[in-house]
Design goal:
Layout (H helix, E strand, L loop, with lengths): L1 H21 L1 H18 L4 H36 L6 H32 L7 H21 L9 H34 L4 H29 L2
Pfam families: Cytochrom_B561
GO molecular function: heme binding; metal ion binding; transmembrane monodehydroascorbate reductase activity
Cofactor: heme b
Length: about 220
């Protein structure tokens, strides 16, 4: 009963967020037209707008990094660690770490998408914006499959597991790629160097991949002691 209630709450939260995300589309097109006009016709205010836009771009990038570059990998590592965990208490903790990190990841990605819709000129003429739209749809589809998780041993569990794993893998890979393309778009927009951030991101992703691959080896090493 508690599991069902949790699923209903999660599903309701998803529906509510979808409604919130749809609302900005109503006024976003007119806002973009006005903002374009103000950028081209009023050069005196361009410097002030640039500072505001710079903050919004930076915040957008941070939200998407926290979502795709941190919380999503943490959730994947947690659920992978639970595959061979025999202690019921640790298994429950790892599952909740996975669930909470994925929910927070979806919420932060949603916040970043709302910022993009409301504040940026989304002409979809670059890889970052196009990939972001596809990624956002896959994120919500992945969240929905997580909410509708069937019981262990029930019919369709294997198909659900494969679909959930496939979507999660796609989100992880596309998310990391989109962070890199976002850094490139940031450099083109601001002409600021992204070398340091690229190195830091690459080091972080490399560490996560190393931990992911080392988990099976660590279990093998422990079994030989």
């Amino acid at each position: 009963m508690q599991v069902l209630a949790g699923k209903l709450v999660s599903f309701t939260m998803c529906i509510g967020l979808i409604i919130i995300l749809v609302l900005p589309f109503v006024s976003s097109s007119q806002a973009h037209v006005k903002s374009i006009g103000s950028h081209t016709n009023n050069k005196g205010n361009n410097h002030k707008v640039s500072h505001k836009l710079m903050f919004e771009i930076t915040l957008h990038g941070f939200l998407l990094w926290a979502s795709m570059g941190f919380l999503m990998p943490v959730g994947i590592l947690a659920i992978r660690m639970s595959n061979r965990e025999e202690c019921g208490r640790r298994l429950k903790i790892l599952f909740y770490v996975h669930a909470v990190s994925q929910i927070l990841s979806v919420l932060l990605a949603s916040a970043g998408a709302v910022m993009s819709i409301k504040n940026f000129n989304n002409s979809f003429n670059n890889h970052h914006q196009r990939l972001g739209v596809a990624l956002y749809g896959i994120i919500w589809l992945q969240a929905l499959t997580g909410v509708l998780r069937p019981w262990r041993g029930s019919k369709g569990r294997s198909a659900w597991f494969f679909a959930h794993w496939l979507l999660g893998t796609a989100v992880s890979i596309l998310g990391v790629i989109n962070i890199y393309t976002g850094l490139g778009a940031y450099h083109e927009k601001t002409s600021r160097s992204i070398k340091l951030w690229t190195i830091v991101l690459t080091a972080e992703i490399s560490l996560i991949v190393f931990i992911y691959l080392f988990q099976d080896k660590w279990l093998y090493i422990q079994s030989k002691e």
